[in-house]
C-alpha cells in the first residue's frame, strides 16, 4: 500500500513536469489509487487502476466474462490464434479475438454513411446485417463525451464520429463484388433504388485484410414500403424464426415515454412478480450522498430511505437494532457476492456502485459482503451505509 502511494506521488510529479514543460502536449496518466486522481485532473485522460479493476469485477458478477471481452477488445490480434486446436470453442475464441474497436467519421464511412438522419438503433442493426460490423457508440463533433448505445432517440448526423467493433478498420477493408452483382447494381440504379455510391448491392461482400476475411451472405438491399425492416418469413431460408422486432428509421415518440430517471417506474413496478406474497424492498433512487474521494463520478443508485447505522453493517455481529449474527439468519433471497481485500480502500466503492445501479431490478439485487483483514474506517463506512444489503466482516 505504501509503495502504491509512493508510485502515485512520482507519477503526479512527472505529470506536473510534463504539463509545465509542454502545456499543449496531450497527456495520458495512469494512477493506481483513486484519491490521487484529483492531483492530475488537468490531464487529457486519466485511468485509475483500482477504479477500473473493481468496476470490472462488479460487472463480471452481473455479466460473466465482461473482463475477458474488454481485454480482447483492447489487445491487437490477427484472429488466427487457436485455429489448429481440435476444440471448436477454442477456434471460435481465437477467430473472434481479432475484433477491436475503431472509429470513423460518418461522412467518410461506407459502413454508416447511408444512415445519416436515421436513428442510432436503425443504423446499428442494418450496418451489422449488411457488413457484419457492430456499431456501439457515437460522439458529437462539439462534445468530448462518447455515447455508448444512445438508443433510438439519437439521430445520426454527418459530423458524428462512429465507434464500431470489427475485425479490421474500414479504411483497411477491401470490397470485392461479383460481376453479376455489378450488373444488378447498374440495373437497379436506373430504377432509382440506389442513389449514390454508399447504396451498393451487397449480396456478396468480402471485407478482408491479409488472410482474415468475412463473407457476408444474403444481405441484398430490398425496397420497402414502410420505414421498418422487413423481417424474413418464418419458413424462409434455414427455417429460423426472426429473433427481433422491426427496427424503425426514426424513434416512435408516441411509444417512448419521457426520460425521467428519478421518477420513472422500475422494472419491478412495471412487471410485478407472480408471487405477490413476496414483499418488495423499500428503496429509493438517488445519488449516493457521500463519496469516499474527490473525483468519483455520481451514479444513480438504489439507496436506503434512511442510512444504516455503522453497527448494522457488521454481518457477523448483532447489535441493538437486530440480533442477526450470520448470513443464514438474514434469510437472503439472492446469492451473496463476496469480495476479499486486505483493507477497505476507496476502490471498493467502485465495486459496490455498479451492483446498486438504478437499472438493476430491486428484487435481483445481491447482498454484498466485504471480507477485510483490517476493519474499515468511519470515512469508508459513511460512504457505503446508504446502500442496501452491503455488509463487512473483519
List the SSEs and their pairings.
Layout: H1 2-21, E1 28-31, E2 45-48, H2 49-62, H3 66-74, H4 88-96, E3 100-105, H5 120-131, E4 134-139, E5 147-148, E6 161-166, H6 179-190, E7 204-209, E8 212-217, H7 267-270, E9 284-286, E10 301-303, H8 327-330, E11 337-341, H9 349-355, E12 368-372, H10 378-384, E13 390-393
Parallel strand pairs: 1-2, 11-12, 12-13
Antiparallel strand pairs: 3-6, 4-5, 4-6, 7-8, 9-10
Helix pairs in contact: 2-9
Task: Provide a concise account of the structure shown.
By secondary structure, this protein is α/β, with parallel strands linked by helices.
Notable characteristics:
394 residues, alpha/beta, four-stranded antiparallel sheet, three-stranded parallel sheet, 15% strand, globular
Number of strands: 13
- Outline the low-pLDDT stretches: 176-180, 190-241, 257-267
Helix content: 10-25%
- Report the total helices: 10
What is the topology, as strand order, of the major beta sheet? 3-6-4-5
Beta-strand share of residues: 15-25%
Our Rg estimate from Cα atoms comes to 26 Å
Biggest sheet descriptor: 4 strands, antiparallel
Order of helices and strands: HEEHHHEHEEEHEEHEEHEHEHE
Molecular shape: globular
Q: What oligomeric assembly is this protein in?
A: single chain
Structural class: alpha/beta
| Average pLDDT metric | 77
First and last CA, distance: 18 Å
Can you describe what's shown?
There is one protein chain. The protein is α/β, with parallel strands linked by helices. Helix content is 25%, strand content 15%. The protein is built from 10 helices and 13 strands. The protein has helices at 2-21, 49-62, 66-74, 88-96, 120-131, 179-190, 267-270, 327-330, 349-355, 378-384; strands at residues 28-31, 45-48, 100-105, 134-139, 147-148, 161-166, 204-209, 212-217, 284-286, 301-303, 337-341, 368-372, 390-393. A 4-stranded antiparallel β-sheet has the order 3-6-4-5. It has a 3-stranded parallel β-sheet with strand order 11-12-13, with no helix packed on it.
Amino acid at each position: 500500500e505504501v509503495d502504491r502511494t509512493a508510485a502515485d506521488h512520482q507519477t503526479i510529479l512527472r505529470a506536473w513536469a510534463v504539463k509545465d514543460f509542454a502545456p499543449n502536449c496531450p497527456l495520458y496518466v495512469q494512477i493506481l489509487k483513486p484519491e490521487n486522481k484529483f492531483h492530475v485532473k488537468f490531464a487529457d485522460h486519466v485511468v485509475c487502476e483500482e477504479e477500473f479493476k473493481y468496476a470490472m469485477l462488479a460487472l463480471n458478477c452481473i455479466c460473466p466474462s465482461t473482463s475477458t471481452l474488454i481485454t480482447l477488445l483492447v489487445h491487437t490480434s490477427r484472429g488466427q490464434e487457436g485455429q489448429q486446436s481440435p476444440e471448436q470453442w477454442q477456434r471460435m475464441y481465437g477467430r473472434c479475438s481479432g475484433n477491436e474497436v475503431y472509429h470513423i467519421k460518418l461522412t467518410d464511412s461506407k459502413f454508416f454513411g447511408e444512415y445519416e438522419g436515421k436513428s442510432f438503433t436503425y443504423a446499428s442493426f442494418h450496418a451489422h446485417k449488411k457488413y457484419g460490423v457492430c456499431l456501439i457508440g457515437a460522439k458529437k463533433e462539439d462534445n468530448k463525451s462518447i455515447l455508448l448505445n444512445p438508443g433510438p432517440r439519437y439521430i445520426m448526423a454527418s459530423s458524428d464520429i462512429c465507434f464500431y467493433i470489427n475485425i479490421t478498420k474500414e479504411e483497411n477493408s477491401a470490397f470485392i463484388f461479383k460481376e453479376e452483382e455489378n450488373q444488378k447494381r447498374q440495373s437497379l440504379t436506373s430504377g432509382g433504388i440506389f442513389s449514390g455510391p454508399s447504396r451498393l448491392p451487397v449480396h456478396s461482400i468480402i471485407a478482408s485484410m491479409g488472410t482474415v476475411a468475412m463473407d457476408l451472405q444474403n444481405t441484398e438491399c430490398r425496397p420497402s414500403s414502410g420505414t421498418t425492416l422487413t423481417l424474413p418469413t418464418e419458413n424462409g431460408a434455414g427455417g429460423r424464426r426472426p429473433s427481433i422486432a422491426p427496427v424503425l428509421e426514426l424513434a416512435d415518440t408516441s411509444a417512448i415515454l419521457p426520460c425521467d430517471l428519478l421518477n420513472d417506474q422500475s422494472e419491478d413496478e412495471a412487471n410485478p412478480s407472480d408471487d405477490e406474497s413476496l414483499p418488495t424492498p423499500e428503496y429509493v433512487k438517488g445519488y449516493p450522498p457521500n463519496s469516499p474521494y474527490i473525483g468519483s463520478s455520481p451514479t444513480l443508485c438504489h439507496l436506503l430511505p434512511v442510512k444504516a447505522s455503522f453497527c448494522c453493517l457488521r454481518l457477523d455481529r448483532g447489535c441493538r437494532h437486530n440480533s442477526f449474527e450470520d448470513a443464514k439468519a438474514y434469510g437472503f433471497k439472492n446469492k451473496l457476492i463476496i469480495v476479499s481485500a486486505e483493507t477497505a480502500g476507496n476502490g471498493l466503492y467502485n465495486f459496490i456502485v455498479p451492483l446498486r445501479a438504478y437499472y438493476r431490478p430491486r428484487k435481483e439485487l445481491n447482498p454484498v459482503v466485504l471480507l477485510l483483514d483490517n476493519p474499515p474506517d468511519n470515512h469508508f463506512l459513511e460512504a457505503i451505509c446508504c446502500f442496501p444489503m452491503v455488509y463487512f466482516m473483519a
